[in-house]
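Supplementary Methods S3. Input chains for the assembly prediction are listed below.
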Amino acid sequence: MSDGPAVPSDDVFPDSGSVAIERHWHEECGVFGIFPHPDASHLTYLGLHALQHRGQESAGIVTTDGERLRSRLAMGLVQDVFDGNTLDELKGHGAIGHVRYSTTGSSTPDNIQPFFGNYAGGHIALAHNGNLINADQLKHELEARGALFRGTSDTEVILYLAIQSKQSSATDRIIEALGQVKGAYSLVVMTDESLIAVRDPHGFRPLVLGKVKDAYVVASETCAFRLVDADYVREVEPGEVIEITRDGLKSYFPWGKSTPTARCIFEYVYFARPDSLIYQRNVYVVRREMGRILAREAPVAADVIVPVPDSGVPAAIGFSEVSGIPYQTGLIRSHYVGRTFIEPRDSIRNFGVRLKLSPVHEVLRGQRVVVVDDSIVRGTTSRKLVHLFRKAGAVEVHMRISSPPTIGSCYYGVDTPNREELIASKQSVDEIRDYLGADSLAYLSLDGMRDAAGNHDGYCDACFTGRYPVAVGEPSVAQLPLFTSHPELPVAPP
Amino acid sequence: MSDGPAVPSDDVFPDSGSVAIERHWHEECGVFGIFPHPDASHLTYLGLHALQHRGQESAGIVTTDGERLRSRLAMGLVQDVFDGNTLDELKGHGAIGHVRYSTTGSSTPDNIQPFFGNYAGGHIALAHNGNLINADQLKHELEARGALFRGTSDTEVILYLAIQSKQSSATDRIIEALGQVKGAYSLVVMTDESLIAVRDPHGFRPLVLGKVKDAYVVASETCAFRLVDADYVREVEPGEVIEITRDGLKSYFPWGKSTPTARCIFEYVYFARPDSLIYQRNVYVVRREMGRILAREAPVAADVIVPVPDSGVPAAIGFSEVSGIPYQTGLIRSHYVGRTFIEPRDSIRNFGVRLKLSPVHEVLRGQRVVVVDDSIVRGTTSRKLVHLFRKAGAVEVHMRISSPPTIGSCYYGVDTPNREELIASKQSVDEIRDYLGADSLAYLSLDGMRDAAGNHDGYCDACFTGRYPVAVGEPSVAQLPLFTSHPELPVAPP
Amino acid sequence: MSDGPAVPSDDVFPDSGSVAIERHWHEECGVFGIFPHPDASHLTYLGLHALQHRGQESAGIVTTDGERLRSRLAMGLVQDVFDGNTLDELKGHGAIGHVRYSTTGSSTPDNIQPFFGNYAGGHIALAHNGNLINADQLKHELEARGALFRGTSDTEVILYLAIQSKQSSATDRIIEALGQVKGAYSLVVMTDESLIAVRDPHGFRPLVLGKVKDAYVVASETCAFRLVDADYVREVEPGEVIEITRDGLKSYFPWGKSTPTARCIFEYVYFARPDSLIYQRNVYVVRREMGRILAREAPVAADVIVPVPDSGVPAAIGFSEVSGIPYQTGLIRSHYVGRTFIEPRDSIRNFGVRLKLSPVHEVLRGQRVVVVDDSIVRGTTSRKLVHLFRKAGAVEVHMRISSPPTIGSCYYGVDTPNREELIASKQSVDEIRDYLGADSLAYLSLDGMRDAAGNHDGYCDACFTGRYPVAVGEPSVAQLPLFTSHPELPVAPP
Amino acid sequence: MSDGPAVPSDDVFPDSGSVAIERHWHEECGVFGIFPHPDASHLTYLGLHALQHRGQESAGIVTTDGERLRSRLAMGLVQDVFDGNTLDELKGHGAIGHVRYSTTGSSTPDNIQPFFGNYAGGHIALAHNGNLINADQLKHELEARGALFRGTSDTEVILYLAIQSKQSSATDRIIEALGQVKGAYSLVVMTDESLIAVRDPHGFRPLVLGKVKDAYVVASETCAFRLVDADYVREVEPGEVIEITRDGLKSYFPWGKSTPTARCIFEYVYFARPDSLIYQRNVYVVRREMGRILAREAPVAADVIVPVPDSGVPAAIGFSEVSGIPYQTGLIRSHYVGRTFIEPRDSIRNFGVRLKLSPVHEVLRGQRVVVVDDSIVRGTTSRKLVHLFRKAGAVEVHMRISSPPTIGSCYYGVDTPNREELIASKQSVDEIRDYLGADSLAYLSLDGMRDAAGNHDGYCDACFTGRYPVAVGEPSVAQLPLFTSHPELPVAPP
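Predicted structure tokens for the full assembly:
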């Protein structure tokens, strides 16, 4: 069991009239683009559907037929925002799309992506996964030069920088624009004649390139390629700008090839779909390996391994393989808890996790149970789970977390609580264990996580270490969680 | 009966799955603003409701509480776009609102007003009734300076000109912006600390000022004041800029007081509500006078006067008063034909006007009928009406139109067909009469219309005369109907 | 001015979150049927649309293709309940439809008509306009024989009586069923092979027969025939049963031809559309005649006649014709106040009638105004109107009501308030005039109303006289307003 | 590999504009009831939510406050049919609810349950899981006695039999009614003063009793108790009638205790939720045991065990435990494929299972894969899965089905295809294996399934054996799939 800096947490996220049980941080976006293909809008629909786990709040598609843009953007799931008629009306050989999860404060129609419009160079549309560190400063400068910001999204900043560039080609405008921003961005940009894909030099967020017949596709994860029958080509590399036209593909590294990169390691821990390749490795395999290493680092005498579904499954399988303790589905997840589920009356509330997760008593009764989860945020959901397991008859409950304690907020495109809400930022593992009411608690070590990811370098693990690859200045209160540098963990210069 | 150069027209406007019978041109907008009032959003809702006849396609309200803007904009009627919760959430002491009718091509969510955003000077929101002549040229200039246009509305041009102005106050920015535009605009602009109302120097579109307790209200028509219990103060004068702050009202004439003005005379003919004051005259009284003069100009031996409801009613009453022929409600209008009414199957279609207008046979049978309508656009609906009257037993059908033949499109904020679709631009009155199948047809003379309006000067009557107060250059095809100045056609009196 | 038994009334009907200003009683239904026609559902849609004024709460259509029924029933307006797909799915050569207004208490989906189902004799569907006097008693008897009532509508009673009849043909079953009921009913019944139309022996509610090509149509009013291009054939006579099959039409008078009939005279006063023939007379002409007689009975020195739109218009025109006082449109009615219009906040409420009716000051200022309305219910709306006229500058306000005082509730299919809520049941005309704040008030006399209707016999005028053609027993509280016989007006036996 | 009588099947179920991939038969219903509890409607909502897997087409709740019923029934998921307001309006201390999956033909609002109404004995509401064998005959008899059937559901038959009973108490009426029906029924019946729960003497469908404070709850599965914090008391026994009033619970066995029972064994195979107790055994444990026995019956040399999620998971775990071959999550299931998901264009279609199930190549590549599924219907989906596995790199694909071949339709409340559509009714296991393209295929033996279920007697396994516990006569075409008795398998009398 770990005795390092401690951590925990889960969460019940009640929002107006609905119960959403959130144990996790939220990816803020998924992006998709295709060019040129006669069914561009339909394929983008399928691609966004495969990326739905990266953002469920809003969805949008913009298409071009070379002469004008057509768009459909709305709050809701991909399958609710679009229907057959809508997709047919989104004519054109090029399309980009976006799914979005957003922080509560900016959950407005004005922020739905892609952003698009007409400027001196023609039409442009842009979809963005990431977060800029210097957006506020740039916004002020752009306003001083006459920009009007409709929403609060960083994406508008990039769009304005591009259209105000003096470069002649759209690709050069985008390159010039991105030369001024700091932070995380995986971008797809569409003009009437091209699709441009860009990944920031640190490569914070994933972005992959595929091909379906004569068309290129770009997506946040490879799982989007499966559905559109595209072949995986390769990652868009950190710092790479790819321009796709009818003449084919060109690649640029306008800022050189930076080392080391800072790929988000949390994609492996939780965000990405298990069937995706992320940074050229399969997510399921990495997660299973996390469980295997955790079993070696924090063994425990027990009768049964139970994952918290669905994200805890691969690590639980790995833990079972190494420990030899049987793997069982001891928690059943309901597939029917959606946005419209209403909160029970006060008098009958406090069912908490039971709405979504239900224990199988016969698997747990009288057993020493190892519960495997991928991470802990606030600790509240984990605590309820431990209680649920005990009530179902477990005689011992051992929590095993397949990532290290999360001690820092993310400023690179992930919706995280403020640092002080992260239980591991304030409590030791022992304290957290006591709070959860577990018999034991152990986290995967940093080295264990890095081993599972196959590399010790090239990842951003700031949320686990407090070492931020791109220095965060004095962010505006509205935009970013208040950051207090971690005394003993010096913040690295970018 | 007139034999002069003829004109007419009506229209059946089928759009996707619905039948809308349109005999008329469409006003493009109504605007409303109030500052400062604790119930700003609720009063704006009522004001927009009273202005609903000026635009049924979309509605929007933006409010300020001095610190941030809140907005709700959507396609639909005022009462469908807003509900009690929405209005409560639109907090603030200042509000502006807009209702819009738009041409088919630009009927997209991106064009819903008010436009708003954040710029170097703070927050700004803008609602516009009118049309700019030089929007395209300005748009190109602005794009060259880095502007991004999300929709196709002229309003964005004004907004960008304002925020890129070097003036320090919002009012001065607006004044500087408007110094560059040509055309028609009645504007309400809201900042965090003020409400600004502007009417272009020609005064094309109406705009009035009122007061409710300590707050000022601005609206397209006085009928909006009734509903919010505001007192009418006066017209916003052509060329006037009114700035309303917590300190009271200031008036500016930055471009001097121009003469002559060019107030749209078609407001009297059709657009405005009969209970409104327009240009300080009551609309109902002007319309009735049009009917009275028409009765003198084009008398006819007949048994009954029947208006085409509702817009033909006041002139029909006037015609009856002068002619002594009894006024009767010989056409009943259905109140239930809305946007969702579906088109009957082909096999049983062609009911045309019957869906909305139904004849009272007992009033028409065996009678010589004078049908009074306010105008004719394409002639198709009038033709069906004449047929309907004959089928109901009328032995003679005499059409009397309470305005002159419409021979030109409008470029100042009214949605009109291209010139060539206007029947009076191509046919003589005799030809139109024959097309309609009427026994006689007469239009009100230009002088008659001007007499009824109380003035021969100060009006824009370009749609009747082809004399455009602000020269129209080479408008873009998308934006404006192709205009060819009508050199050889001094418009003949009927 | 009348000094007889006094009367009043109008009403503001606030229901959950919406403002509906109701000056009137409510017709409870409109019915339509067609057989056999390949476009049966589409024509029924159009027919119901024309009958929409008879009921706006719910709409339903049931069709037959000879083998099975298809149905669509929902709360809402005809154009909102049906779309093109729905109508296409309602296959079949026969169709009946229904629009409904209901009392608040029974406003549930379970009462939407037509009622339909499968029984020993095959399929049956039934739509009903009217109200039974002995429904409660029959319901108990039917329940004792094993019936299950899903809703609270009388129509289910008729349906059960019919299917439990031992007769072999559907027509005979219906006849036998109706032999047991008392009250008002205009019915359309559909089986797989026939359409049956029935009107009760008193002929309380209207019902007319038409023909379109080889198909017969039946409807509450002739206005429904216009829209489907059907020719008016004749009234379905009181006490008549019409059976329409592919072999043609058969007529029965199973209960003999009763005299006198008791046709609802209020159809002329308010319910029916002005372009309809009701009881073979045109409604507009009758209403105008009511105004003409009223002008003779209750003359007044005044400057202008103003109708309360739209129902007061014909009588106002008649009043103007006889009195020679000019008719003017002094009140403008908004077409945009629908079910979803929200109630203004308390702080800015009490606008009352202004939401729907707006005065034209220039027509009223300094004038002695005669306001013509068709009836008064509670008096509250009339009172607000008088206030509105005075505020608009009228120096005198004279109310003229084109029907006698309403002193009794209706038990024959009209939604009326309890007797004690009718202002005329408790107050004299002078008292009502004082309550309204009018300078004078006069109602049309009973004889005047009967003269206008062309007959003194054959009408039910119970709401004006308290003489009920069919004795009302001890109605259940839920079903009927509490009836207290009018002391001096003995209730006639049926 | 098995060489016994062969069987298979899966299915792609395309319905209007949506893609639903259905590998399974459909349970037709879930029922829930509670009495007496102040939050009856809210708890019923939660209970139905937990039973959502038993029916996703429609949902309904009826409540009683002792004086009247209140109801809400609509097409859709539980969380879409009800919101907080609706539940608050469903006042009362008693409630029953129903979720329903229905066959295509009868998917109409008229069949949504509970059914309810008013009859001689007061109010009654009824919700039903099951199917009657003699419904058609009873329907004809009831029609002959004057019943009217609104929908096509068997439930109306029971309701009519009950209300036409001469018994005085509701419980006795229900008992008398059920004495006449044959087939499967688990019922909850609500009157103003009681809740009655009944299970047919064969006990085809499950029904359990629980307690929450002073109230009793009845539900199809115990998983509904978890969510409402109720304690499991026991099964409602086959042939038992339980009457719950404010005075407590009474139990009756009006038809004696029948042996043997015929509990549906397919609940263990697929229908029930893994965390439920069904027939007093935990579903997860039974399913895992099926996998364990299958591993012994049909071993195979392989590298990895992959379940078809989610229903194949427990058996796959059991198979892995016995075989020692590692269990891996080689197929990822999307949680976002709902009713509104649109079908891709023809040109890009045929993605089939990929929309819902996505392979993890890294788990499958180069491996000999054992795919564990619970059953095969038509075989089409299984065939696509085999192809998917091969395309992902599997070198061998061995299908293992944790139940015997399904050769017969169900007539006891499960929506099954006609016998001839079941691949195993026409093909041998070898033929099916060839059709699927698998390297091997094996089904669990009948004895193996019975061993896993813990008993060889007391189950209905007609779909596997063709031995129907209740003889099926000549069912109407509309109601039941055409049944041909299996030559070599004599149909047992009940």
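Chain C is about 25% helix and 25% strand. Chain C has two domains: 26-271, 284-458.
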